[in-house]
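so im writing up the methods section and need the Aminotransferase class I and II domain-containing protein record in one place, dumping it here so i stop losing it
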Amino acid sequence: MNYQRMAIEKEAPEEVGAVIKYNLSESAISDQTPESLSITIPPALVLTYTEHRGSRKIRSLVAQASGGSLTPDDVLVTAGASTSLFIVNTALLGPKDHIVVTRPNYATNLEVPRSIGCDITYIDLEFELQFCLNVDRIAAAIRPGITKLISICSPNNPTGTVCKASEIQSLASLAKEKQCYLLVDETYLDLNYDSSGENAIPTAASLGNHVITVSSMSKAYGVPGIRIGWLITSNPLLQGTFLAAKEQISISGSVLDELAAEQVLSRRAELLPKTIADMRRRRDRVASWVDEESELVEWVRPEAGVMCFIKMKKDPAGGTQAFYTRLLEKHGVYVGRGTWFERDDRFFRLGYGWPTWEDLETGLNGISKALRG
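--- predicted struct ---
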């Protein structure tokens, strides 16, 4: 493994520090507390190892969300989605293998295959085509007998766009035909704004035992500090391999983290509708801001998650670097620049789920001013 620090981590808000006053770079809802989520820790809780596969209750709750197509044995609990992604990629890929991965994407989905040293074909989702998935382009990139994995992120980070259920099905069928695995990062699936009727998107892991999905508590529930994520596959051989990887990394999870996750996930049906309603309202505020600044910026309206990928129509006064410097130093506003996602810096990720409503308003105003110099 050839580890390199990712730009998104080197420039993460917690690394930049107190100079940030209005943080519009985050990709989650606002951080919660044990009090806000009614989490209780019994004083007699034994601080021991947990079941290596993860809490049975967590795995049952995750499986239930699939509508009965999956079982708790199909779920492996990990220390966040990032650990799940690391396990899947390192278990399936070696330096002589080939992966097809879409961009933009969550940085770990790009950097771990790169660290492994395998051959990578990037399929760049195009702004002009609404960041839509092109299954034909992915099919053309597959190398029979060499391609081990197709990797996508839907709902997408950083764009907030969502692949249609029919597109995921087509991709799963393609992967099966070509005898490779399909990895779908579904971290924002719980924050799909329209999940009813024909827009309902079940977890892709229900589409076959060659499909693997990854998700997390961090983004939709505002608890990145408890480090709970999971991967799902109905393939028992893969589950055994992934469990072996987890055991060699950490043996088991944290009993405190898993207890907190159990309590939060048990309230999923209560918490998520309120969160989605709030995110719709915030997205609509950003939509009105984009309309107000239509001479300077444009976007693809997000369908899920807590963020969007804003594109500057032209270089701002002094250039993009001057814009980002001015935005932070003069206005105290922080956004996720395009290079975090291997795009040019005319793009930036704007997270509208984490700041307070007042900070979001102030942050948008700061961006408007910084764009003009």
